[in-house]
Design a protein that fits this description.
The complex is a heterodimer. By secondary structure, chain A is an alpha/beta fold. Chain A has 11 helices and 14 strands. Helix content of chain A is 37%, strand content 29%. The two termini of chain A are 38 Å apart. The chains are: A alpha/beta, B mainly alpha.
């Protein structure tokens, strides 16, 4: 069984009459690159603030590496974070800022500072003052701070904000490297689904403080890819017809009355004819398949409708 | 806690405020030592020095300078974190909000009081070396005068910590800490002029900051000293506990 890095249970945050996060459940396994997807103000940052202790929980609980309550406090040292915009001392250089946090965390090996700066391509700006940094550089220093001391869990809130396309691509490679080579668990939030899709292996969709769906990349691919949706009264028999009569093998039985056919050569009229000829009731057949953005819009639409 | 203190000291030495504090303190004492004249500010204290009182004790009685100078460490250590929003970095990855408050308050207090004692003793030894015993008193007498002010400066720094954690803005800290004593003195002056309020105002004025600083350094009565220390203890406790409660409730950005 996979180790759970972070788990929330009915996590809720209320500000007077406003509920920023409403009974959110989330499970992040060790080694995951977990994408937190939602529009601006959906509750992504609130979720991150709660689990990092920046704000107090109204209801519910969470555990970090299996520890909850005050024991979770000790596990904080295993977390690296970048919540909202990166914040550092303007009068200090990139190196001095990270050195300050090395002192705080008790990191004696200062080589880690240069390693963190190198991982975000900031080696050349090592001795530049933070106040002279561009937005992208600030963002990268924030990520370097999160990676300091090789944490087991890295939480990044909108890390690609302000980065140029090359910077985004480099960062993507860094995330993959951290996950594959060091086994670091990453939780990354973004409102740009396509960017998260490029790196994450699991996703949590969130809107208006409510968790909409938690899916793996495979499930997302399945739900977004183009297919024929077939609805009959007997899926078992329908599957046999697809295989034996039409030689279609690329399909998936979704539930008791729905089958999705991914075979691009499959003809809807032929499928419909065979189903009817074999005395099955055909409730419907239609093409499906949406882009990631449309998929997200559909999810959000379901909440608001 | 040691790691946090190391980090704070590292950052503090990179601020302009750190050097400003030591420069201003050294500048004031240099003038005193060179011109044989104690110098400093006083909000509304009327201190009379006897001819037998040595210059260094007179200087200690004018330690109201430190009321203004000690705003600088609080500004650099606490307000800097809020204005740069770096407080979240520490709380998300190193310590809890509660420990953060305790660490920051303790460090600000320790640094401020250590700096206060260090600068005073540096002045004492330099003055003694340069001007000799004509202008300097015995080490014990000087220590008694200066260390007797310590509870008061503890209360003052606690109050600064409270304001810094409550308002979070350096400009607000500076404005309130500088304007309040002046406004208070002005108000008291006005009340003293009025026949009906004179007695009450005079009583209150005995416990005005610069008056207490001066009197605690000079030979004040034991009952006055005890009352001052009770006030200081109350201000310290209320400020530190109040500051924590407000900070704990406040949502961090």
């Amino acid at each position: 069984m996979r180790e759970i890095a972070l788990q929330t249970n009915q996590l809720t945050k209320r500000y007077k009459n406003f509920t920023a996060l409403d009974r959110a459940d989330m499970t992040v396994y060790r080694g995951d690159i977990y994408g937190l997807v939602g529009r601006n103000g959906a509750g992504k940052t609130t979720m991150m603030k709660l689990v990092t202790g920046l704000t107090n929980v109204t209801e519910g609980s969470f555990s970090i590496f299996g520890k909850s309550g005050s024991a979770a406090e000790k596990e904080k040292k295993r977390i690296g974070c970048l919540i909202e915009s990166p914040a550092f001392f303007g009068n200090l250089t990139a190196y001095q800022n990270l050195r300050y946090y090395c002192f705080q965390k008790g990191i004696t090996d200062v080589k880690q500072i240069d390693e963190a700066l190198k991982s975000v391509s900031l080696t050349d700006a090592r001795n530049k003052k933070f106040k002279t940094f561009s937005l992208g550089m600030k963002q990268r220093l924030g990520i370097a701070f999160a990676l300091l001391d090789n944490p087991d869990l890295v939480i990044l809130d909108e890390p690609i904000n302000g980065l140029d396309p090359i910077g985004i691509s480099e960062l993507r490679d860094t995330f993959r490297k951290l996950s594959q080579e060091k086994g670091i668990t990453l939780i990354i939030s973004s409102h740009i689904l396509s960017e998260l899709y490029a790196v994450a292996n699991r996703f949590l969709f969130i809107e208006s403080g409510k968790v909409l769906k938690e899916v793996t990349k495979q499930q997302l691919d399945l739900e977004c890819s183009r297919c024929l949706v077939l609805k009959t009264d007997d899926n078992k028999k329908a599957a046999t017809i697809l295989e034996d009569k039409l030689d279609i093998r690329d399909y998936k039985v979704i539930d008791s009355c729905e089958i999705r056919v991914y075979d691009e050569s499959a003809k809807p009229d032929l499928i419909a004819k065979e189903i009817v000829l074999n005395d099955l009731r055909l409730f419907g057949i239609h093409e499906s398949g949406v882009s990631l953005e449309d998929y997200f819009k559909q999810l959000v639409g379901e909440v608001h409708s | 806690m040691i790691n946090m203190f190391k980090a704070e000291l590292y950052r503090l030495t990179k601020t302009k405020g750190f050097y400003l504090f030591w420069f201003l303190a050294a500048f004031i004492y240099t003038l005193t030592v060179v011109y044989h004249a104690p110098g400093g500010i006083s909000f509304s204290a009327f201190l009379e020095f006897s001819d037998s009182l040595k210059m260094d004790i007179q200087q200690v009685a004018l330690n109201t300078n430190y009321y203004l100078l000690l705003i600088i460490p609080t500004f650099c250590i606490i307000c800097g974190e809020f204005s740069e929003h770096t407080v979240k970095n520490t709380i998300t990855s190193a310590i809890s909000k509660k420990k953060y408050y305790i660490m920051k308050s303790l460090f600000t207090m320790l640094y401020s009081l250590t700096a206060f004692i260090t600068v005073n003793y540096l002045f004492y030894f330099v003055n003694r070396a340069v001007n000799g015993s004509k202008y300097s008193s015995a080490f014990g007498a000087f220590s008694k005068a200066m260390l007797g002010q310590l509870p008061l400066f503890t209360a003052i720094v606690s109050l600064f910590i409270f304001i810094a954690f409550t308002l979070k803005k350096g400009a607000a800290l500076n404005a309130i800490t500088m304007i309040t004593p002046l406004a208070f003195s002005l108000l008291m002056m006005m009340l003293i002029e009025i026949e009906q309020t004179r007695k009450v105002a005079e009583k209150i004025m005995r416990y005005e900051i610069s008056t207490m600083i001066g009197k605690l350094a000079l030979d004040c009565s034991d009952s006055y000293r005890a009352k001052c220390y009770i006030i200081c203890a109350a201000v310290t406790i209320v400020s530190l506990v109040g500051g924590y409660l407000i900070f704990e409730k406040h949502e961090l950005e």
